[in-house]
Amino acid sequence: MEDEVDRLVAAWRRERPDLDVEPLEVLSRVSRLARHLDRARRLAFSEHQLEPWEFDVLTALRRAGTPYQLSPGQLLTQTLVTSGTMTNRIDRLAKKGLVERLPDPSDRRGVLVRLTDEGRDRADQALAGLLEQERAILAELSRAQRAELAGLLRQLTAPFDNIPG
Amino acid sequence: MEDEVDRLVAAWRRERPDLDVEPLEVLSRVSRLARHLDRARRLAFSEHQLEPWEFDVLTALRRAGTPYQLSPGQLLTQTLVTSGTMTNRIDRLAKKGLVERLPDPSDRRGVLVRLTDEGRDRADQALAGLLEQERAILAELSRAQRAELAGLLRQLTAPFDNIPG
DNA sequence: ATGAAGTCTCTTGATATCGAGCCTCTTGAT
DNA sequence: ATCAAGAGGCTCGATATCAAGAGACTTCAT
């Protein structure tokens, strides 16, 4: 089946036959799919009264395991946002009672963000919903294809994740 | 090589062994890779004094071919933004002299957005720069792997692009 | 000790986005 | 003709993001 990127690439080949636009076949699909996923996630989370950004922070803390706490800096690297954004997010989550801010006992500059019980429950519920929805999207592919796809994507993400980037 | 999603998935398997988090292997990589690409694109475009959003609009018009004009509505569907956003983008591009707004001769509600000569040149230059950068990112994969990856991604994007979505 | 450099978080100001509603014009049924 | 419904683009208010820089504290070399 044809997709929007096929049309996009065909248009470039017509307009700029001198250029090799092969890279777009992969990377434009990644960008566009990510936007579609954002919208789908937003919808899935709205059932749990959570915004995508709230989910990102809450689940980062949830994954850390007991006692469910991380520094803002650790949250930055996991969520790929800037520090100003994270400050703002923590403020709002704290106001909603889903996290609390504690002084870091071992570094007086630092802060620890801890998930509240309610925050943990909300994260767990939203994760279940998200996985269900993602499984539906991935039903297009066989198990083997999904594994293949994951492996190829890993080769592209690894340099970003490991080099300072 | 391991990436951030491997660590993320491992953490979920430890914290929620009851859940099947396999979908994340694919879709979390897509989302994270897209964010990395956004940043890389922003950097690549800054050499040409263009923002990513400007590139998106300009190249949509460029791909349309002579006379390089589309309606705001057509631009919406190609760039996946809302109409308010597109109005704002067109305003700013017009102010910079990269596009101009013309009345649609066949529908008095409508407007046509046309690329200026300078807009076309800037789009062409930025595209060349982007492709160069994307080629570097994709050098991790063989030609056959890139084709494989593109095909798998197409299967996921096609439903979004073809069904009303 | 002491000072310089680095780290961590927060503040600030600018800006882009979205969602909802509005107005104009078109379409199609009667 | 006329009217209701729809389509197209714009306005407006709220909000989330980023970049740059400030302040507090730590680290490390001297």
TrEMBL record, chains A, B:
Pfam assignment, any one: MarR_2
Domain HTH marR-type: 23-158
InterPro entries with a match to the protein in the record: HTH_MarR-typ, Tscrpt_reg_MarR-type_CS, WH-like_DNA-bd_sf, WH_DNA-bd_sf
Protein keywords: DNA-binding, Transcription, Transcription regulation
This protein's record includes keyword Transmembrane: no
Keyword tRNA processing: no
SMART domains, A to Z: HTH_MARR (SM00347)
Protein name stated in the entry: MarR family transcriptional regulator
Lineage, uppermost ranks: Bacteria, Bacillati, Actinomycetota, Actinomycetes, Kitasatosporales
